[in-house]
Specification:
This protein is α+β, with helices and mostly antiparallel strands. The chain has one domain (5-148): Gcn5-related N-acetyltransferase (GNAT) (Aminopeptidase). The protein contains 3 helices and 8 strands, in the order βαβββαβαβββ. Strands 1, 2, 3, 4, 5, 6, 7 and 8 form an 8-stranded mixed sheet that branches. The longest helix is centred in the middle third of the chain and has 15 residues, at 88-102. Bound molecules: coenzyme A (COA). Coenzyme A binds next to α1, β4, α2, β5 and α3.
């Protein structure tokens, strides 16, 4: 399947998929991130039949591995059931890597849900030993993952 990854300036376009996939579609939970409106934030999505089916956002953020390294944090990575497992997530991460590299940044990090850890490992990320934790927002088990874009 071929995917066109689009760069959105307005994160609200991604909120429906964020809420549905990552927050049990609970209308009472806010999926607005205060950092969404920052100029340096990057919001990426794949659209099918006028609906966002894959999304992810990135924000400049100190790497948990090395404070001296410029880094972006990936958040709100989600794929709709209708396209899951067909390469959309990978395509979005590749576009994210290209954009971040074009800004002179070579490191990405994320708090990966343990249920999605295989996705990150399959796309070239590395789990940080000892970083396992429960998310304050969702109470789900997470592990910090990092990716160097040097060989991207
Ligand atoms: C995680 C998620 C975004 C991946 O998106 P996707 O479009 O399905 O991923 P892709 O099809 O691009 O998969 C890329 C690779 O990762 C693997 N993969 C994807 N999801 C996986 C998972 N949950 N566990 C293990 N491996 C996974 C695929 O098999 C594929 O491997 P391959 O290329 O060796 O065949 C999607 O499964 C999802 O929305 N999950 C629920 C929400 C979630 O957990 N988001 C992450 C929060 S940190």
């Amino acid at each position: 399947m071929t995917f066109l990854v689009q760069h959105f300036s307005d994160a609200t376009e991604l909120h429906e998929l964020r809420r549905r996939i990552l927050r049990h579609n609970d209308p009472a939970i806010s999926v607005h991130d205060p950092r969404d409106v920052e100029e340096a934030a990057i919001h990426l999505a794949i659209v099918r039949d006028e609906h966002v089916v894959v999304c992810g956002s990135l924000y400049p953020s100190t790497s948990p591995l090395d404070e001296s390294v410029d880094s972006y944090q990936l958040r709100y990575m989600a794929a709709d059931d209708s396209v899951r497992g067909s390469g959309g997530g990978r395509a979005l991460l590749e576009r994210a890597g290209d954009i971040v590299l074009s800004r002179g940044v070579e490191h990405l990090w994320a708090n990966a849900r343990d249920t999605a850890l295989g996705f990150y490992l399959a796309t070239g990320w590395t789990a940080v030993p000892g970083s396992e934790h429960l998310s304050k927002e969702t109470q789900l088990p997470h592990t910090v993952v990092v990716k160097s874009l040097r060989s991207h």
